[in-house]
Amino acid sequence: MQITIRGHHLSITPAIEENIRCKFADMTKHLDQVNSMQVKLTKDHQVDKRTRKGSANHIAEAIVRLPGVELFAQASGDDMYASIKKLTEKIKKQLTRYRKMQMDFQPLAI
């Protein structure tokens, strides 16, 4: 499986890259059909005028490509690691739903 990690308005540190690779590798180790995965990390520089502080401005997006299907999820949080954790939970839900759908449509061997 090929994982592409891009950063928009931030640089990807080795710790963030390792965190993403470990989480997605654990999630997809039982699913061989994943062709590629693209992760985009963004830091939004908007600041709230009242508190002068940014909130939920770390955004993580992922596109997982399977044969005939693309899964997409987006998560945001105050910390990039929290955003990545939310993102992996969303993708994991979609993958389990996809896996269940594949199991339901398999023909029975007689």
From TrEMBL:
One Pfam family this sequence matches: Ribosomal_S30AE
GO molecular function: ribosomal small subunit binding
InterPro entries per UniProt: HPF/YfiA_ribosome-assoc, RHF-like, RHF/RaiA
UniProt superkingdom: Bacteria
One Gene Ontology CC term in the entry: cytosolic small ribosomal subunit
Keyword list, A-Z: Translation regulation
Subunit structure: Associates exclusively with 100S ribosomes, which are dimers of 70S ribosomes.
Similarity field: Belongs to the HPF/YfiA ribosome-associated protein family. Short HPF subfamily.
PANTHER family referenced in this protein's UniProt entry, alphabetically: 30S RIBOSOMAL PROTEIN
Protein name as catalogued: Ribosome hibernation promoting factor
Organism this protein belongs to: Acinetobacter lanii
Gene for this chain: raiA
